[in-house]
Design brief:
Length: about 230
């Protein structure tokens, strides 16, 4: 592991009206870029701060476990120093799953050519679309829709969707027909187990690789250091 690069990071206390997700994104994006990786998303849910990173697009493959470990070691002390997350939390650094949320313009741009599911705001008709994302420009998604409100179409239909009317969107992977027996691991996020303040290295789960870190030196960490 090479030495962590020296990075100047501005103060990032949570400003009024700013979400924790956005504050952490602004804080960590330039830092993670110094490793050659790209910050895709930040999710703060249920006491877990999930930092999702990948190789910059276009990339020949997914991010490696070693790169995730490097990112984890780099951002942990920065989060300790700037303290942008209120309360106690568990830090997870992971690669994106096969199916991932699309919440920002760069998410849509990165997903061009992939299958997506788009749920529209109430009152829209149709309300739920599934198809191939063809392009994204001028705040508009062009989707070749193959299923509308659960009904498969005989031929794909091009729909132009205003992003402001999108309630939720994500990439879609066809897992094939369901089979009896244990459920398949779809590579989704899994919450880390709490333990006595030790750092955990990356774990592979399906298509994901995850590095979990407990921060015993942080006053807001979940765990106290062992004596």
């Amino acid at each position: 592991m090479s030495e962590q690069p020296s990075t100047s990071v501005p103060s990032a206390s949570v400003p009024s009206g700013s979400s924790v997700d956005q504050t952490v994104t602004d804080l960590l994006s330039p830092v993670i870029a110094t490793t050659g990786a790209e910050l895709l998303d930040v999710e703060w849910v249920g006491g877990t701060l999930r930092v999702i990173v990948d190789e910059p697009a276009p990339a020949d493959g997914s991010i490696t476990a070693d790169r995730l470990t490097e990112v984890n070691r780099l951002i942990s002390p920065i989060l300790d120093q700037h303290d942008p997350v209120p309360g106690k939390y568990l830090l997870e650094v992971s690669s994106p799953g096969v199916e991932r949320s699309l919440r920002r313009s760069d998410h849509y741009t990165r997903a061009i050519g992939e299958d997506v599911i788009v749920k529209m705001t109430p009152g829209s008709d149709p309300r739920r679309l599934r198809g191939r994302l063809i392009s994204f420009a001028d705040n508009t998604l062009d989707v070749d829709v193959v299923e509308a409100d659960g009904v498969e179409l005989p031929d794909p239909e091009r729909h132009s969707v205003d992003v402001d009317e999108v309630a939720k969107a994500r990439t879609y992977f066809d897992w094939g027909p369901a089979s009896p027996g244990p459920k398949k691991n779809k590579g989704k996020q899994h919450g880390g187990k709490k333990s006595g303040g030790k750092k955990k290295g990356p774990k592979n789960s399906g298509s994901q690789k995850k590095s979990q870190s407990k921060k015993p030196q942080n006053k807001k960490s979940q765990n106290k250091p062992k004596k």
